[in-house]
């Protein structure tokens, strides 16, 4: 290199130290989830959005959110969500969302479904997972420590089964797949991120989209992609909700600080489509509606399931836009709408107010 030529390596380091390179790269980060959801909506034949119903629901949701003073802080008010703002909580959230999938039971008796007893209370569904993690930690089982996941002498399959033991004869669904996810994540964290979830988060440089892309690129068990019309459709539910949970737990600070948090979409699962249908936002073709109402399974990755998930993401996006159109100063994004809809739907279920069952799909994606 001659004296007149710039030292590109030095320039790169200088740009990085000044935040020039990093910011430009992360502004361009895109999960492509929203774009793919719009494509599904545009080409869907079994799931349709009711425009007027969606606008009406947006107004109702925003009114209720204001009435309840619903905010990001509601996340930490849930009894079982971790409260400490430290690296141990980061590990807890990582494991929580690594395994945040498929809690529904085919047993019509809710008292016989998979459940976890913790501090004298019985928890089911998503909360059973969180309770089981807390219970294990109190039993001095380091279940949230990534290096433990790859120690198959100490962290045996039998021990993992013990961690997620049930109060009923029914086991947690997809237990072997959960064990596989734990092992895979432990190996990849060890190989690519010095065994540290914190290192993984730091590599994203405070970009929500970059963290989603890191998760889905490095960890196959986070790469939630289906095929529709021969086109790959990215949903990335658990990767996105991991980012959202970090943002919520740390109140947008420290490990939860993301300059592009609004790029995260709604999390395509089975509860939000159920709520959107109840609100009159989604309509189903007669065969699909019959399948859901009869509690028959819908295969993971099939056209019906992709349409349900894609149209739900796009519906929540249209809700968000409508709320912002009517209330330009509203501080709301798809994450908050999703959290609110999920909490509301769970409350309706607990009160026996379901008008439509959720669709049944067995998969590790949600």
Fold and architecture overview:
The chain is mainly α and 366 residues long. The protein has helices spanning 8-18, 20-27, 33-43, 51-67, 74-77, 87-98, 125-138, 146-149, 157-163, 175-192, 197-203, 208-218, 237-249, 271-278, 286-293, 303-326, 334-350; strands at 47-49, 116-118, 121-123, 225-228, 231-234, 282-284. Helix 3 crosses helix 16, helix 4 crosses helix 16 and helix 12 packs across helix 13. It is 53% helix and 5% strand. The chain has 17 helices and six strands. The chain starts with 7 loop residues before the first helix and ends in a 16-residue tail after the last helix. The strands form three sheets. The protein has a two-stranded antiparallel sheet with strand order 1-6.
Tell me the structural class.
Answer: mainly alpha
Strand order of the largest sheet: 1-6
Order of SSEs: HHHEHHHEEHHHHHHEEHHEHHH
**How helix-rich are the residues, as a percent range?**
40-55%
Question: What's the number of helices?
Answer: 17
Mean pLDDT: 93
From the N-terminal CA to the C-terminal CA, the straight-line distance is 53 Å
The gyration radius over C-alpha positions equals 21 Å
The major pleated sheet works out as: 2 strands, antiparallel
Shape: globular
The counted number of beta strands is 6
Poorly predicted parts: 14-26
DSSP strand content = 5-15%
- The quaternary structure here is single chain
């Amino acid at each position: 290199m001659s004296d007149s030529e710039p030292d590109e390596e030095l320039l790169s380091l200088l740009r990085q130290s000044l935040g020039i390179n990093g910011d430009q790269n992360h502004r361009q980060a895109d999960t492509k989830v929203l774009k793919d959801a719009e494509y599904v909506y545009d080409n869907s034949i079994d799931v349709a959005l009711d425009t007027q119903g969606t606008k009406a629901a947006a107004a109702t949701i925003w009114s209720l959110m204001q009435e309840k003073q619903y905010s990001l802080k509601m996340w930490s008010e849930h009894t079982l969500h971790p409260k400490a703002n430290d690296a141990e909580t980061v590990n807890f959230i990582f494991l929580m969302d690594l395994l945040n999938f498929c809690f529904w039971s085919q047993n019509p008796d809710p008292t016989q479904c998979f459940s976890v007893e913790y501090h004298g209370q019985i928890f089911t569904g998503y909360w059973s997972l969180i309770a089981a993690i807390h219970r294990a930690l109190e039993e001095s089982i380091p279940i949230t420590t990534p290096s433990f996941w790859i120690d198959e002498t100490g962290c045996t399959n039998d021990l993992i089964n013990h961690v997620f033991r049930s109060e009923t004869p029914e086991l947690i669904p997809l237990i072997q797949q959960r064990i596989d996810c734990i092992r895979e994540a432990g190996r990849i964290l060890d190989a690519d991120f010095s065994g540290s979830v914190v290192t993984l988060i730091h590599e994203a440089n405070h970009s929500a989209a970059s963290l989603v892309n890191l998760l889905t690129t490095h960890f196959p068990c986070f790469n939630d992609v289906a095929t529709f019309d021969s086109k790959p459709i990215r949903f990335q539910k658990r990767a996105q909700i991991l980012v959202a949970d970090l943002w919520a737990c740390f109140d947008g600070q420290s490990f939860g600080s993301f300059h592009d948090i609004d790029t995260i979409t709604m999390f395509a699962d089975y509860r939000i489509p159920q709520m959107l249908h109840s609100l009159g936002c989604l309509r189903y073709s007669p065969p699909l509606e019959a399948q859901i109402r009869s509690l028959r399974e819908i295969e993971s990755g099939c056209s019906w399931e992709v349409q349900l998930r894609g149209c739900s993401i796009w519906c929540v996006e249209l809700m968000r836009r409508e709320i912002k159109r009517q209330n330009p100063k509203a501080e709301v994004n798809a994450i908050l709408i999703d959290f609110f809809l999920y909490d509301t739907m769970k409350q309706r279920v607990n009160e026996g107010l379901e008008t439509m069952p959720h669709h049944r799909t067995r998969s590790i994606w949600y």
